[in-house]
Amino acid sequence: MRTYIIKSLFKHPFTFSVTIRSKTTSAQYVASRARDATFEKLMDKYKNFVKVIAIQDLILSNPNKTPPCISLDFLSKLSQKLHLNRGAPSFLRKYPHIFHIFYDPAKSQAFCRLTDTALEISRKEEEAVNASLPLVVDRLVRLLFMSTSKSLPLRAVFKVWRELGLPDDFEDSVIVKNPNLFRLCDGNEPRTHVLKLVGEFPDNHFTAAVENWRVTECCREDCSVDRMDMRYSFKHVYPPGMRLSKTFRAKAKEWQSLPYLGPYEDLMEKKKKTKAGLKGLEKRAVAIVHEFLSLTVEKMVEVEKISHFRNCFGIDMNIRDLFLDHPGMFYLSTKGKRHTVFLREAYERGRLIDPNPVYDVRRKLLDLVFLGRHDMLTSTSRSVEIDKSEESGSENENVD
């Protein structure tokens, strides 16, 4: 019976979602999801991209050096924490377009710095983040507004500062510089802080991303869906090859038409624990995590990070199972020993459909990760040609 239910997930994920959780372990439920080769290929490289970012941040946090660098001995001590299974030197050598290892005879040890290309990408990302500060402020305001108390633990915001496109000094550059919107208060525990929204906003001030999609869909000339049917609908894009039975389609249609409170609407009182009430709460939870992902730069986030907001958003259910229950909206990957969720509708062929400047810059670094050791011979020969031309140019100057 258990084996049949797991296999049936590919046909009827919505129908069997509640049954599966009661019959199988959480790990089995994750393993039985429908896979998407495009997202899996992206995450296969992205898991190393996360490590590259961690090492890059360590290098750039050492401003006393010009250019910034870090010793291989120090990095090797962090290998386990950074999940560099074969050691720091081996990992760094996999990405010669990003990292350059050199030996300092004065200190008798090896160091690592960013290549000129990687350093330029880092500089451009900082510029893109600073240029988008008004958008960043809006994202943070929206995040706070979705909270039932209009406040969030600062440590939770720290978890997703990069995902939201916040500058690394956002406490000063965003929070302190906008006292009309934000206030930092002491938390219930020692050395904890709570970020509160102090600005006043009228009802219906914020529009969720899914509402914008509904308007766009309804305005299309070839729109064949009844506008009343679109009132509570979300966009669904299922994994390639996933078979959708008539039963599943009927259940999905029923769920799409289910009324719910949007992510920016106040939940005045908890729904009664009836079947309809629980479904309404689930759909509101889906709307909140959908909007959360829409606010991120790359329309993706680690499940562990978003789970820190679960209580603040009034979500009483397991967020990971929420993603698994709605495979047409979310895709969950387990690559790199972490669970990462994507907003499926935002991606096409492994890239954002509607990119933004910060994403564009980060994608350049990800492309270098995809590149690995390739083209190094070409790059080296170009460097040699440049060096020779510079040498000949200097010789000619000396002759003159």
TrEMBL record:
InterPro entries: PORR_domain (IPR021099), PORR_fam (IPR045040)
Domain of life: Eukaryota
Pfam families xref list: PORR
PORR domain mapped to chain residues: 35-372
Gene Ontology terms, MF aspect: RNA binding
PANTHER family given in the database record: ASSOCIATED SALT-INDUCIBLE PROTEIN, PUTATIVE-RELATED, PROTEIN WHAT'S THIS FACTOR 1 HOMOLOG, CHLOROPLASTIC
Protein name in UniProt: PORR domain-containing protein
Source species: Populus trichocarpa (Western balsam poplar)
Species lineage: Eukaryota, Viridiplantae, Streptophyta, Embryophyta, Tracheophyta
